[in-house]
Specification:
The protein is about 40% helix and about 15% strand. The chain is α/β, with parallel strands linked by helices. Helix 6 links the parallel strand 4 and strand 5. The radius of gyration is 17 Å and the shape is globular.
């Protein structure tokens, strides 16, 4: 999304080079981003946080509230009145309100209670399987990420060391461990 400096290579989206495009142009291409730090607007309500990112498309306020009922319950609460898990739901919901065709998630489960992490994983699985949304999930907990993804890509110092079905790594814990420890 342009938050770090590209050292070498190129980045393409739909056959178009994007590494020099400003963030707003990447968003217009259909890229949604959920940062590790959540970056919600603490002085806005849940509903205002969602509305600020709204673009025409299938993801509406009602659909986000259906995916995350807790946000509907807390729609009038300010961002700073939400728990970490609720803030993460809001960050994901806000990204969806931009109606992306590609959703990038950076460590969305970090620091969350296991119950909340499980709930978010189910929501991500729904986005991937039921909504057919392309999701790039960067996650330290490889086993959790592999459970909801179809394909995995493991990088080691910028080089691809595995590119294939997630199921292969789930079914071979020794291979997964070797890849993750090597990375």
């Amino acid at each position: 999304m342009g938050h770090t400096t590209l050292q070498s290579g190129q980045i393409e989206c739909r056959g178009r080079r994007i590494e020099r495009l400003p963030v707003y142009e990447r968003s217009r291409l259909g890229m949604g981003y959920v940062p590790q730090t959540r970056d919600i607007f603490v002085s806005l309500s849940v509903q205002e946080n969602l509305a600020v990112a709204a673009r025409p498309g299938r993801w509406t306020l009602e659909r986000v509230y259906e995916l995350f009922p807790r946000l509907a319950e807390r729609h009038a609460h300010m961002g700073n009145q939400l728990s970490g898990g609720e803030q993460q739901m809001l960050s994901i919901g806000r990204a969806l309100m931009g109606n992306p065709s590609l959703l990038l998630l950076d460590e969305p489960l970090e620091g969350l209670a296991p119950l909340i992490a499980e709930m978010l994983l189910k929501a991500l699985e729904r986005l991937i399987r039921d909504e057919a949304l392309t999701v790039v999930l960067v996650e330290q907990s490889a086993k959790l990420a592999l459970q909801v993804t179809d394909n995995a890509l493991v990088l080691n110092r910028g080089r691809i060391v595995y590119d294939g079905p997630s199921r292969v790594l789930l079914d071979d814990p020794a291979h997964l461990t070797k890849l993750v420890v090597a990375a």
